[in-house]
Protein backbone atom coordinates (compact mmCIF):
# COMPACT_ATOMS: atom_id res chain seq x y z
CA UNK A 1 0.00 0.00 0.00
CA UNK A 2 1.33 3.45 -0.88
CA UNK A 3 0.30 6.73 0.67
CA UNK A 4 1.06 9.84 -1.36
CA UNK A 5 1.35 13.23 0.25
CA UNK A 6 0.38 16.72 -0.75
CA UNK A 7 3.10 19.37 -0.58
CA UNK A 8 2.29 19.94 3.08
CA UNK A 9 0.58 17.71 5.68
CA UNK A 10 -3.14 17.30 5.23
CA UNK A 11 -5.62 19.66 6.80
CA UNK A 12 -6.66 18.81 10.32
CA UNK A 13 -10.12 17.61 11.16
CA UNK A 14 -12.91 19.89 12.39
CA UNK A 15 -12.89 20.81 16.03
CA UNK A 16 -15.50 20.48 18.73
CA UNK A 17 -15.69 22.74 21.74
CA UNK A 18 -16.97 21.47 25.09
CA UNK A 19 -19.50 23.61 26.88
CA UNK A 20 -19.95 23.51 30.60
CA UNK A 21 -22.65 21.09 31.70
CA UNK A 22 -24.85 21.76 34.70
CA UNK A 23 -23.00 24.83 35.90
CA UNK A 24 -19.78 24.45 33.99
CA UNK A 25 -17.97 21.38 35.35
CA UNK A 26 -15.48 19.99 32.84
CA UNK A 27 -12.89 17.24 32.62
CA UNK A 28 -9.34 17.58 33.88
CA UNK A 29 -6.71 17.17 31.18
CA UNK A 30 -3.01 16.63 31.90
CA UNK A 31 -1.90 16.56 28.30
CA UNK A 32 -0.86 12.91 28.07
CA UNK A 33 -2.91 12.07 25.04
CA UNK A 34 -3.76 13.76 21.82
CA UNK A 35 -5.92 14.19 18.78
CA UNK A 36 -6.79 17.17 16.65
CA UNK A 37 -7.43 20.56 18.16
CA UNK A 38 -10.83 21.36 19.55
CA UNK A 39 -11.14 25.12 19.25
CA UNK A 40 -13.57 25.67 16.39
CA UNK A 41 -15.60 28.19 18.36
CA UNK A 42 -12.61 30.50 18.57
CA UNK A 43 -11.65 30.04 14.92
CA UNK A 44 -15.01 30.75 13.33
CA UNK A 45 -15.14 34.56 13.84
CA UNK A 46 -11.78 35.09 12.13
CA UNK A 47 -12.86 32.92 9.22
CA UNK A 48 -16.12 34.81 8.82
CA UNK A 49 -14.35 38.13 8.93
CA UNK A 50 -11.97 36.95 6.24
CA UNK A 51 -8.95 38.09 8.22
CA UNK A 52 -7.09 34.79 8.07
CA UNK A 53 -4.00 33.94 10.11
CA UNK A 54 -2.00 36.78 11.64
CA UNK A 55 1.79 36.67 11.68
CA UNK A 56 3.88 37.54 14.73
CA UNK A 57 3.50 37.59 18.47
CA UNK A 58 4.62 35.43 21.38
CA UNK A 59 2.51 32.62 22.79
CA UNK A 60 2.94 31.82 26.50
CA UNK A 61 2.06 28.29 27.60
CA UNK A 62 1.53 27.52 31.29
CA UNK A 63 2.87 24.09 32.26
CA UNK A 64 2.81 22.48 35.70
CA UNK A 65 6.15 20.63 35.60
CA UNK A 66 9.56 21.35 34.14
CA UNK A 67 11.32 19.80 31.17
CA UNK A 68 13.46 16.75 32.06
CA UNK A 69 16.17 16.28 29.38
CA UNK A 70 17.02 12.73 30.47
CA UNK A 71 13.45 11.73 29.53
CA UNK A 72 13.67 13.34 26.08
CA UNK A 73 12.88 10.09 24.26
CA UNK A 74 10.13 8.90 26.61
CA UNK A 75 6.54 10.06 26.28
CA UNK A 76 5.23 11.63 29.47
CA UNK A 77 3.46 14.69 30.78
CA UNK A 78 6.68 16.56 30.00
CA UNK A 79 6.63 15.83 26.23
CA UNK A 80 4.61 18.88 25.22
CA UNK A 81 7.56 20.70 23.63
CA UNK A 82 8.72 17.80 21.41
CA UNK A 83 7.00 18.84 18.17
CA UNK A 84 8.10 22.46 18.54
CA UNK A 85 11.76 21.45 18.24
CA UNK A 86 11.56 18.19 16.30
CA UNK A 87 9.56 16.70 13.48
CA UNK A 88 8.44 13.09 13.16
CA UNK A 89 8.14 10.90 10.07
CA UNK A 90 4.33 10.81 10.03
CA UNK A 91 1.31 11.81 12.12
CA UNK A 92 -2.11 10.26 12.47
CA UNK A 93 -5.44 11.83 11.67
CA UNK A 94 -8.43 11.12 13.92
CA UNK A 95 -9.10 7.80 12.17
CA UNK A 96 -5.53 6.58 12.81
CA UNK A 97 -4.64 7.05 9.16
CA UNK A 98 -1.01 8.18 8.89
CA UNK A 99 -0.36 11.51 7.21
CA UNK A 100 2.97 12.74 5.83
CA UNK A 101 5.44 14.79 7.79
CA UNK A 102 9.14 14.20 6.98
CA UNK A 103 8.18 10.99 5.20
CA UNK A 104 6.20 11.99 2.12
CA UNK A 105 5.18 8.49 1.02
CA UNK A 106 5.68 4.87 2.00
CA UNK A 107 5.18 1.38 0.65
CA UNK A 108 5.06 -1.87 2.58
CA UNK A 109 6.43 -5.07 1.10
CA UNK A 110 3.76 -7.71 0.55
CA UNK A 111 5.22 -9.95 3.27
CA UNK A 112 5.25 -7.08 5.79
CA UNK A 113 8.99 -7.50 6.33
CA UNK A 114 10.10 -4.11 4.99
CA UNK A 115 8.84 -0.63 4.27
CA UNK A 116 10.22 1.91 1.80
CA UNK A 117 10.10 5.55 2.86
CA UNK A 118 10.49 8.56 0.62
CA UNK A 119 11.71 11.51 2.63
CA UNK A 120 11.04 15.21 2.30
CA UNK A 121 13.73 17.23 0.56
CA UNK A 122 14.82 20.76 1.43
CA UNK A 123 14.57 20.20 5.20
CA UNK A 124 17.30 21.61 7.43
CA UNK A 125 18.15 21.36 11.09
CA UNK A 126 18.28 24.53 13.14
CA UNK A 127 22.07 24.65 12.70
CA UNK A 128 21.68 24.56 8.91
CA UNK A 129 22.60 20.91 8.33
CA UNK A 130 20.36 19.15 5.76
CA UNK A 131 18.03 16.34 6.87
CA UNK A 132 18.79 13.01 5.15
CA UNK A 133 18.10 9.30 5.43
CA UNK A 134 21.03 9.01 7.83
CA UNK A 135 18.99 10.94 10.38
CA UNK A 136 16.19 8.37 10.22
CA UNK A 137 18.68 5.53 10.62
CA UNK A 138 20.11 7.29 13.66
CA UNK A 139 16.67 7.95 15.17
CA UNK A 140 15.74 4.26 15.00
CA UNK A 141 19.08 3.11 16.40
CA UNK A 142 18.86 5.72 19.14
CA UNK A 143 15.56 4.23 20.37
CA UNK A 144 17.11 0.76 20.20
CA UNK A 145 19.78 1.95 22.66
CA UNK A 146 18.97 0.48 26.09
CA UNK A 147 20.39 3.62 27.72
CA UNK A 148 17.46 5.63 26.35
CA UNK A 149 14.16 5.69 28.20
CA UNK A 150 11.78 5.07 25.29
CA UNK A 151 8.48 3.23 25.34
CA UNK A 152 8.49 2.06 21.71
CA UNK A 153 11.89 0.36 21.91
CA UNK A 154 10.40 -3.05 21.05
CA UNK A 155 9.02 -1.70 17.77
CA UNK A 156 12.29 0.08 16.98
CA UNK A 157 14.15 -3.14 17.75
CA UNK A 158 12.10 -4.96 15.12
CA UNK A 159 13.98 -2.89 12.52
CA UNK A 160 17.02 -5.03 11.76
CA UNK A 161 18.41 -3.42 8.61
CA UNK A 162 18.57 -0.26 6.53
CA UNK A 163 19.01 0.21 2.81
CA UNK A 164 19.66 3.77 1.71
CA UNK A 165 18.73 4.73 -1.82
CA UNK A 166 20.27 8.17 -1.89
CA UNK A 167 19.76 10.88 0.68
CA UNK A 168 15.96 10.84 0.62
CA UNK A 169 14.83 7.25 0.22
CA UNK A 170 15.24 4.53 2.81
CA UNK A 171 14.16 0.91 3.23
CA UNK A 172 13.60 -0.33 6.77
CA UNK A 173 13.94 -4.11 7.04
CA UNK A 174 11.97 -5.85 9.78
CA UNK A 175 12.70 -9.00 11.74
CA UNK A 176 8.99 -9.78 11.61
CA UNK A 177 5.79 -7.96 10.70
CA UNK A 178 4.50 -5.43 13.25
CA UNK A 179 1.19 -3.60 13.09
CA UNK A 180 2.25 -0.48 15.01
CA UNK A 181 5.08 0.84 12.85
CA UNK A 182 3.28 4.15 12.30
CA UNK A 183 2.95 4.54 16.07
CA UNK A 184 6.75 4.48 16.10
CA UNK A 185 6.90 6.99 13.25
CA UNK A 186 4.68 9.47 15.14
CA UNK A 187 6.43 8.89 18.46
CA UNK A 188 10.04 9.00 17.21
CA UNK A 189 11.45 12.53 17.22
CA UNK A 190 14.14 13.13 14.59
CA UNK A 191 16.85 14.60 16.73
CA UNK A 192 20.28 15.69 15.52
CA UNK A 193 22.66 12.75 15.46
CA UNK A 194 25.67 15.01 16.04
CA UNK A 195 24.48 16.50 19.33
CA UNK A 196 22.25 13.88 20.93
CA UNK A 197 24.34 13.62 24.10
CA UNK A 198 24.03 17.37 24.55
CA UNK A 199 20.28 17.02 24.03
CA UNK A 200 19.77 14.54 26.88
CA UNK A 201 21.57 16.92 29.25
CA UNK A 202 19.61 19.95 28.06
CA UNK A 203 22.64 21.74 26.59
CA UNK A 204 21.56 21.75 22.93
CA UNK A 205 18.34 20.59 21.28
CA UNK A 206 18.82 20.79 17.52
CA UNK A 207 15.86 19.73 15.38
CA UNK A 208 14.03 20.45 12.13
CA UNK A 209 10.88 21.72 13.85
CA UNK A 210 9.19 25.13 13.58
CA UNK A 211 10.89 26.63 16.64
CA UNK A 212 14.43 26.76 18.02
CA UNK A 213 15.04 26.33 21.72
CA UNK A 214 16.91 29.44 22.79
CA UNK A 215 16.92 29.00 26.56
CA UNK A 216 16.04 26.47 29.23
CA UNK A 217 15.86 27.88 32.74
CA UNK A 218 15.48 24.85 35.04
CA UNK A 219 12.45 25.25 37.26
CA UNK A 220 11.27 28.30 35.34
CA UNK A 221 10.59 27.33 31.73
CA UNK A 222 11.66 27.18 28.09
CA UNK A 223 12.03 29.87 25.42
CA UNK A 224 11.65 29.25 21.68
CA UNK A 225 12.04 31.45 18.60
CA UNK A 226 10.80 30.95 15.04
CA UNK A 227 12.88 28.71 12.75
CA UNK A 228 13.16 30.99 9.73
CA UNK A 229 14.09 28.14 7.35
CA UNK A 230 11.31 25.78 8.36
CA UNK A 231 10.31 23.45 5.54
CA UNK A 232 6.64 24.45 5.58
CA UNK A 233 6.29 27.68 3.59
CA UNK A 234 5.24 30.71 5.65
CA UNK A 235 5.16 28.68 8.87
CA UNK A 236 5.10 29.09 11.76
CA UNK A 237 3.05 32.26 12.16
CA UNK A 238 4.22 32.92 15.71
CA UNK A 239 7.54 34.66 16.34
CA UNK A 240 8.18 33.00 19.67
CA UNK A 241 6.81 30.62 22.30
CA UNK A 242 7.40 30.68 26.06
CA UNK A 243 6.76 27.73 28.37
CA UNK A 244 6.26 28.98 31.92
CA UNK A 245 6.36 26.50 34.84
CA UNK A 246 3.43 27.22 37.17
CA UNK A 247 2.93 24.23 39.50
CA UNK A 248 0.44 25.91 41.86
CA UNK A 249 -3.16 25.58 40.67
CA UNK A 250 -4.25 29.05 41.82
CA UNK A 251 -1.27 30.74 40.16
CA UNK A 252 -1.84 28.82 36.93
CA UNK A 253 -5.49 29.82 36.94
CA UNK A 254 -4.60 33.45 37.53
CA UNK A 255 -2.02 33.37 34.76
CA UNK A 256 -4.68 32.31 32.25
CA UNK A 257 -7.41 34.64 33.50
CA UNK A 258 -5.16 37.70 33.45
CA UNK A 259 -3.74 36.93 30.01
CA UNK A 260 -0.20 36.30 31.21
CA UNK A 261 -0.57 32.86 29.57
CA UNK A 262 -2.72 32.02 26.57
CA UNK A 263 -2.62 28.20 26.62
CA UNK A 264 -2.47 25.35 29.13
CA UNK A 265 -3.27 21.66 29.35
CA UNK A 266 -2.62 21.53 33.10
CA UNK A 267 -5.68 23.10 34.75
CA UNK A 268 -7.03 20.77 37.49
CA UNK A 269 -10.61 19.62 36.95
CA UNK A 270 -11.87 21.39 40.07
CA UNK A 271 -10.71 24.72 38.62
CA UNK A 272 -12.30 24.37 35.20
CA UNK A 273 -15.70 25.81 36.25
CA UNK A 274 -13.91 29.10 36.96
CA UNK A 275 -12.38 28.97 33.47
CA UNK A 276 -15.80 28.22 31.98
CA UNK A 277 -17.14 31.45 33.47
CA UNK A 278 -14.26 33.55 32.08
CA UNK A 279 -15.43 35.14 28.79
CA UNK A 280 -11.93 35.48 27.34
CA UNK A 281 -11.10 31.77 27.65
CA UNK A 282 -12.22 28.60 25.89
CA UNK A 283 -12.17 25.00 27.18
CA UNK A 284 -11.84 22.17 24.67
CA UNK A 285 -11.49 18.40 24.93
CA UNK A 286 -9.43 16.19 22.66
CA UNK A 287 -12.03 13.49 22.38
CA UNK A 288 -10.28 10.84 20.26
CA UNK A 289 -7.19 10.67 22.41
CA UNK A 290 -6.89 7.94 25.00
CA UNK A 291 -5.41 8.18 28.45
CA UNK A 292 -6.41 7.12 31.90
CA UNK A 293 -5.90 7.65 35.57
CA UNK A 294 -5.07 4.31 37.10
CA UNK A 295 -4.02 2.56 40.28
CA UNK A 296 -0.81 0.59 39.84
CA UNK A 297 -0.03 -2.47 41.94
CA UNK A 298 3.43 -3.88 42.64
CA UNK A 299 2.79 -7.62 42.42
CA UNK A 300 6.02 -8.49 44.27
CA UNK A 301 4.82 -6.81 47.48
CA UNK A 302 2.83 -9.17 49.72
CA UNK A 303 -0.14 -9.52 49.88
CA UNK A 304 -0.48 -7.74 46.51
CA UNK A 305 1.03 -10.82 44.91
CA UNK A 306 -2.40 -12.36 45.57
CA UNK A 307 -4.69 -11.77 42.60
CA UNK A 308 -7.78 -11.85 44.83
CA UNK A 309 -6.42 -8.92 46.84
CA UNK A 310 -5.78 -6.96 43.64
CA UNK A 311 -9.30 -7.67 42.42
CA UNK A 312 -10.67 -6.47 45.75
CA UNK A 313 -8.96 -3.11 45.19
CA UNK A 314 -10.52 -2.92 41.73
CA UNK A 315 -14.01 -3.40 43.18
CA UNK A 316 -13.34 -0.96 46.02
CA UNK A 317 -12.82 2.28 44.07
CA UNK A 318 -15.71 4.53 43.10
CA UNK A 319 -14.76 5.50 39.55
CA UNK A 320 -17.90 7.53 38.97
CA UNK A 321 -17.22 9.66 42.05
CA UNK A 322 -13.66 10.36 40.91
CA UNK A 323 -14.96 11.30 37.48
CA UNK A 324 -17.62 13.67 38.79
CA UNK A 325 -16.03 15.17 41.88
CA UNK A 326 -12.35 15.19 41.00
CA UNK A 327 -12.22 15.37 37.22
CA UNK A 328 -15.15 17.68 36.69
CA UNK A 329 -17.62 15.24 35.17
CA UNK A 330 -16.22 14.71 31.67
CA UNK A 331 -14.47 11.53 30.68
CA UNK A 332 -15.41 7.90 31.02
CA UNK A 333 -15.33 5.75 34.15
CA UNK A 334 -13.71 2.55 32.92
CA UNK A 335 -12.10 -0.62 34.20
CA UNK A 336 -10.13 -0.98 30.95
CA UNK A 337 -7.60 1.38 29.34
CA UNK A 338 -9.34 1.72 25.97
CA UNK A 339 -11.07 4.91 24.82
CA UNK A 340 -14.25 4.49 22.79
CA UNK A 341 -12.29 5.33 19.63
CA UNK A 342 -10.15 2.19 20.08
CA UNK A 343 -11.05 -1.06 18.27
CA UNK A 344 -10.27 -2.79 21.58
CA UNK A 345 -13.05 -0.95 23.45
CA UNK A 346 -16.08 -2.87 24.73
CA UNK A 347 -18.83 -1.82 27.09
CA UNK A 348 -18.54 -5.14 28.91
CA UNK A 349 -14.88 -4.49 29.62
CA UNK A 350 -15.48 -0.90 30.65
CA UNK A 351 -18.03 -1.92 33.29
CA UNK A 352 -16.34 -5.14 34.43
CA UNK A 353 -15.48 -3.57 37.81
CA UNK A 354 -18.09 -1.25 39.27
CA UNK A 355 -18.10 0.19 42.77
CA UNK A 356 -18.97 -2.62 45.20
CA UNK A 357 -17.28 -2.11 48.60
CA UNK A 358 -19.15 -5.07 50.06
CA UNK A 359 -17.68 -7.41 47.45
CA UNK A 360 -14.26 -5.84 47.95
CA UNK A 361 -14.35 -6.49 51.72
CA UNK A 362 -15.55 -10.06 51.11
CA UNK A 363 -12.64 -10.76 48.74
CA UNK A 364 -10.13 -9.35 51.21
CA UNK A 365 -11.56 -11.56 54.00
CA UNK A 366 -11.45 -14.63 51.75
CA UNK A 367 -7.79 -13.89 51.03
CA UNK A 368 -7.07 -13.56 54.75
CA UNK A 369 -6.40 -9.81 54.69
CA UNK A 370 -9.43 -7.92 56.06
CA UNK A 371 -7.08 -5.07 57.07
CA UNK A 372 -4.14 -3.73 55.12
CA UNK A 373 -1.71 -0.82 55.41
CA UNK A 374 0.02 0.21 52.16
CA UNK A 375 1.94 3.16 50.68
CA UNK A 376 0.50 5.04 47.70
CA UNK A 377 2.89 7.10 45.56
CA UNK A 378 1.46 9.97 43.53
CA UNK A 379 2.69 13.04 41.66
CA UNK A 380 2.64 16.12 43.88
CA UNK A 381 0.58 18.28 41.53
CA UNK A 382 -2.93 19.43 42.46
CA UNK A 383 -4.90 17.29 40.00
CA UNK A 384 -2.92 14.13 40.73
CA UNK A 385 -3.08 14.71 44.46
CA UNK A 386 -6.87 15.00 44.29
CA UNK A 387 -7.10 11.62 42.54
CA UNK A 388 -4.78 10.04 45.12
CA UNK A 389 -6.88 11.41 47.98
CA UNK A 390 -10.05 10.01 46.40
CA UNK A 391 -8.42 6.58 46.11
CA UNK A 392 -7.24 6.83 49.71
CA UNK A 393 -10.77 7.59 50.90
CA UNK A 394 -12.35 4.72 48.96
CA UNK A 395 -9.81 2.13 50.04
CA UNK A 396 -10.21 3.13 53.67
CA UNK A 397 -13.88 2.12 53.41
CA UNK A 398 -12.86 -1.46 52.61
CA UNK A 399 -10.21 -1.72 55.35
CA UNK A 400 -7.15 -0.67 53.34
CA UNK A 401 -5.24 2.19 54.95
CA UNK A 402 -2.95 3.94 52.47
CA UNK A 403 -0.23 6.45 53.25
CA UNK A 404 0.25 9.03 50.52
CA UNK A 405 3.76 9.51 49.14
CA UNK A 406 3.86 12.76 47.10
CA UNK A 407 6.64 12.68 44.51
CA UNK A 408 7.83 15.18 41.91
CA UNK A 409 6.92 14.33 38.28
CA UNK A 410 10.44 13.54 37.06
CA UNK A 411 11.17 11.18 39.96
CA UNK A 412 7.80 9.47 39.57
CA UNK A 413 8.49 8.86 35.87
CA UNK A 414 11.95 7.48 36.61
CA UNK A 415 10.49 5.16 39.27
CA UNK A 416 7.92 4.02 36.75
CA UNK A 417 10.61 3.16 34.20
CA UNK A 418 12.97 1.50 36.70
CA UNK A 419 10.23 -0.65 38.30
CA UNK A 420 10.90 0.90 41.70
CA UNK A 421 7.38 1.77 42.76
CA UNK A 422 6.04 0.97 46.26
CA UNK A 423 3.05 -1.30 46.81
CA UNK A 424 0.59 1.12 45.20
CA UNK A 425 0.92 4.17 42.99
CA UNK A 426 -1.40 6.31 40.91
CA UNK A 427 -0.50 8.13 37.71
CA UNK A 428 -1.83 8.62 34.20
CA UNK A 429 -0.98 6.45 31.21
CA UNK A 430 -1.32 6.85 27.47
CA UNK A 431 -0.70 4.44 24.57
CA UNK A 432 -4.28 3.13 24.42
CA UNK A 433 -5.14 5.75 21.80
CA UNK A 434 -3.03 4.25 18.99
CA UNK A 435 -2.78 0.67 17.75
CA UNK A 436 -4.02 -1.51 20.63
CA UNK A 437 -0.95 -3.76 20.44
CA UNK A 438 1.27 -0.81 21.38
CA UNK A 439 -0.08 -0.59 24.93
CA UNK A 440 1.16 -4.02 25.97
CA UNK A 441 4.48 -3.96 24.11
CA UNK A 442 5.44 -0.36 24.89
CA UNK A 443 3.68 1.35 27.82
CA UNK A 444 5.69 0.94 31.04
CA UNK A 445 2.72 -0.10 33.22
CA UNK A 446 1.56 -2.76 30.74
CA UNK A 447 4.72 -4.01 28.97
CA UNK A 448 4.55 -7.77 28.71
CA UNK A 449 8.34 -8.18 29.00
CA UNK A 450 9.10 -5.67 31.74
CA UNK A 451 6.32 -3.71 33.41
CA UNK A 452 6.28 -1.47 36.47
CA UNK A 453 4.10 -3.93 38.41
CA UNK A 454 6.69 -6.68 37.86
CA UNK A 455 3.89 -8.90 36.60
CA UNK A 456 5.02 -11.76 34.37
CA UNK A 457 2.91 -14.34 32.60
CA UNK A 458 3.84 -16.63 29.72
CA UNK A 459 0.23 -16.56 28.54
CA UNK A 460 0.15 -12.74 28.59
CA UNK A 461 3.41 -12.54 26.65
CA UNK A 462 2.17 -15.01 24.06
CA UNK A 463 -1.08 -13.21 23.29
CA UNK A 464 0.56 -9.78 23.28
CA UNK A 465 3.26 -10.88 20.86
CA UNK A 466 0.72 -12.53 18.60
CA UNK A 467 -1.48 -9.42 18.61
CA UNK A 468 1.53 -7.23 17.79
CA UNK A 469 2.71 -9.27 14.81
CA UNK A 470 -0.71 -10.05 13.32
CA UNK A 471 -2.80 -7.97 10.91
CA UNK A 472 -4.52 -5.13 12.76
CA UNK A 473 -8.03 -5.92 11.49
CA UNK A 474 -10.27 -8.97 11.26
CA UNK A 475 -11.82 -11.54 13.56
CA UNK A 476 -8.48 -12.87 14.80
CA UNK A 477 -7.29 -9.38 15.73
CA UNK A 478 -10.49 -8.78 17.68
CA UNK A 479 -10.13 -12.09 19.51
CA UNK A 480 -6.55 -11.29 20.53
CA UNK A 481 -7.56 -7.86 21.83
CA UNK A 482 -10.30 -9.47 23.92
CA UNK A 483 -7.77 -11.88 25.38
CA UNK A 484 -5.44 -9.03 26.33
CA UNK A 485 -8.33 -7.11 27.91
CA UNK A 486 -9.50 -10.18 29.81
CA UNK A 487 -5.99 -10.72 31.16
CA UNK A 488 -5.74 -7.11 32.33
CA UNK A 489 -9.10 -7.36 34.11
CA UNK A 490 -8.46 -10.75 35.68
CA UNK A 491 -4.91 -10.11 36.85
CA UNK A 492 -5.62 -6.50 37.94
CA UNK A 493 -1.96 -5.48 38.13
CA UNK A 494 -3.02 -2.18 36.57
CA UNK A 495 -6.44 -0.98 37.75
CA UNK A 496 -7.83 1.57 35.31
CA UNK A 497 -10.17 4.18 36.75
CA UNK A 498 -11.15 6.93 34.32
CA UNK A 499 -10.47 7.42 30.62
CA UNK A 500 -10.02 11.06 29.73
CA UNK A 501 -8.84 13.08 26.77
CA UNK A 502 -6.58 16.08 27.13
CA UNK A 503 -8.36 19.31 27.95
CA UNK A 504 -7.10 22.55 26.47
CA UNK A 505 -7.65 25.92 28.09
CA UNK A 506 -6.82 28.78 25.76
CA UNK A 507 -7.40 32.41 25.03
CA UNK A 508 -10.13 32.97 22.45
CA UNK A 509 -7.53 35.00 20.55
CA UNK A 510 -5.50 31.82 19.96
CA UNK A 511 -6.22 29.66 16.90
CA UNK A 512 -4.78 26.61 15.16
CA UNK A 513 -3.42 24.64 18.12
CA UNK A 514 -3.16 20.85 17.79
CA UNK A 515 -1.69 17.88 19.64
CA UNK A 516 -0.48 14.70 18.03
CA UNK A 517 -1.43 11.29 19.41
CA UNK A 518 1.46 11.42 21.88
CA UNK A 519 0.59 14.92 23.15
CA UNK A 520 3.32 16.69 21.24
CA UNK A 521 2.16 20.29 20.80
CA UNK A 522 1.92 21.35 17.13
CA UNK A 523 1.96 25.12 16.58
CA UNK A 524 2.72 25.16 12.85
CA UNK A 525 -0.62 26.83 12.09
CA UNK A 526 -1.16 28.60 15.43
CA UNK A 527 -1.62 32.36 15.59
CA UNK A 528 -2.85 35.09 17.90
CA UNK A 529 -5.60 37.29 16.48
CA UNK A 530 -6.33 40.81 17.68
Calculate the mean pLDDT score and round it. Answer: 88
**Which structural class matches the secondary elements?**
alpha+beta
The helix content is 25-40%
Query: Span from first to last CA?
Result: 45 Å
Question: Which regions have little confidence, pLDDT < 50, spanning 5+ residues?
Answer: 1-49
Major sheet: order of its strands? 9-10-11-2-12-20-13
- Beta-strand percentage? 15-25%
Radius of gyration: 22 Å
Sheet having the most strands: 7 strands, mixed
Total helices: the number is: 17
Shape: globular
Count of individual beta strands? 24
Name the descriptors.
single chain; 530 residues; alpha+beta; seven-stranded mixed β-sheet; 28% helix
Plain-language structure description:
The structure is a single chain. With 530 residues, this protein is of the alpha+beta class. Helices cover 28% and strands 22% of the residues. It contains 17 helices and 24 strands. A seven-stranded mixed β-sheet has the order 9-10-11-2-12-20-13. A six-stranded mixed β-sheet has the order 15-19-14-18-16-17. A hairpin with a 3-residue loop joins β9 (211-217) and β10. α16 (458-469) packs antiparallel against α17 (475-491). The longest helix is centred in the last third of the chain and has 17 residues, at 475-491. The chain is globular. The N and C termini lie far apart (45 Å). Mean pLDDT is 88; it is low at 1-49.
Short overview:
The protein has 530 residues and is an alpha+beta fold. It contains 17 helices and 24 strands.
